[in-house]
Sequence to fold (153 residues):
Amino acid sequence: MKNKLVIVLDRLRSAHNVGNIFRIAEALGAAEIIACGYTPAPPHPRLEKTAMGSDKMVPCRCFASSLEAVKVLRQEGVKEILAAEPLPGSVPAWKREYNFPLAVIFGNEALGVHPETLEVVDGLVSLPMHGEKASINVGNAAAAILYAIESKE
Fold:
């Protein structure tokens, strides 16, 4: 990825999902991953197994909350911060224009991105959901959304 992309993980429970997202981040050349709340972060044995070494290649910072991470990212000059949420007003990932440096927040599969954080982001990005369940694994969603962003560079 030519432009700076930060991936923010908000209260993800599964170390396997986080490890998978580290692999995606490394493949795309993301600048870093920020783990918020109880999101597993390196070093972590289950994360390491799934990440297959990418956890040592992609920088990672930890914050108590995604709201705190957003505040710091803004101070650091990140131009646009988006939440990956299929809520009203969300734009399909491949239809949106992006401003870099960019951060994308992926939330807990059951709870989503923290409501306080949703109030301060610059927009919402999502994948169309046509099924009855309207839910996919956060690692799969991250892959689709992040590659859609990469294709827009």
Remarks:
- Strands lie at 5-10, 32-36, 60-63, 80-84, 91-92, 102-107, 123-126.
- Residues 138-152 form the longest helix (15 residues).
